[in-house]
Each structure stands twice: as C-alpha cells, then as structure tokens.
Description:
By secondary structure, the chain is α+β, with helices and mostly antiparallel strands. Helix content is about 40%, strand content about 15%.
Amino acid sequence: METNGESVAATDYRRIVGSLRYLCNSRPDLSYNVGLISRYMQYPKELHMYVAQRILRYLQGTIGYGIMFPKGKSDSELELVGYSDSYWCGDKSDRKNTAGYIFLFGGVPISWNSTKEVVVALSYFEAKYIAALGACYQVIWLETMLQELQVKLSSRTRLLVDNKSAINLAKHPTSYGRSKHIET
C-alpha cells in the first residue's frame, strides 16, 4: 500500500483498526484486509483511513454474515479438518511468504490464521512445508483443547496440503537431511 500522502489522526485510525481486529474473531473474511491495514498503525495516511472506512462500509452491507454453528449435529459427524496453504514470495519488498490455515469442526470454521512468515523459503515446496508445519502445531493444540472439553472426534484430524513434495518431506524422515536449513 502506498505510504505517501497526508497524515491522519492516529488515535482515530487505531480505534477503527482495533475494532476491526476484534470483529475478525467472528468474521474471517476480514482477516487479510484488517491485517494489511494494521501494518500502518504508527503513521497512518489518508489512503489507509480510506481503506479502513471501505472495510466498515463492507461490514454495513454484510451485517448478517458470520459463523453459524448448525443445530443437531451428532457426535458421529464431529470431524476436525484443516487446510493449509502458502503464497511463496508474496511480499515483493522482503520476499517472505504468507502462510495460512483454517480448521473446520463439524463443517464450521473454528480456527484460522494468515501471517507473513519470519523466514524466507528457498522454494515453493519449502513455503508449503513451513505452512503445513504451522498448521500441525495448531492441530495438536486443537486436539488437546477438544480432549479437555471432553469432545470426542468421529475420526482422526485430517490436514490437507496441496503440495506433494511437502507431504513427502513430512512423511519420510530420511528426507530431513535436505531440510535442515528450514527454521522451525
């Protein structure tokens, strides 16, 4: 996003962005855009305020949207499924990839994340592997939490990754020698 232009009142901008970040808990469709405008909290410009107001207008038009849990799901239908993906070299300024995941419990999203990675991946498959690794940490945490809540899953958690090389690296420990440089 452009960083030239007139400055705006940082307090008002921070108030709007803070409220939008709170809304991201029930509106995952806002997460990416709110994360993007959050980068400019220190010195917001007119363009950043315009984008924040645009998000507010979008919210006004989609007020009835959100995450709804279906009634009457039996225990046999409670399945935890995760999807992991990444965008290799997505940010042209620092060449870091954006990785994300979403987990569905009984078909309803319960956990999601989209962040810029702290390491630079050397290849497309490494970016996918790093994203899958972050999703695996979340699987362990979610399964532990569900176990503490005494929720029984109908099957093992499935984590879906769309890169065969990343899946092979995770399945075959003999390949780890070629991936020692990946910071975990």
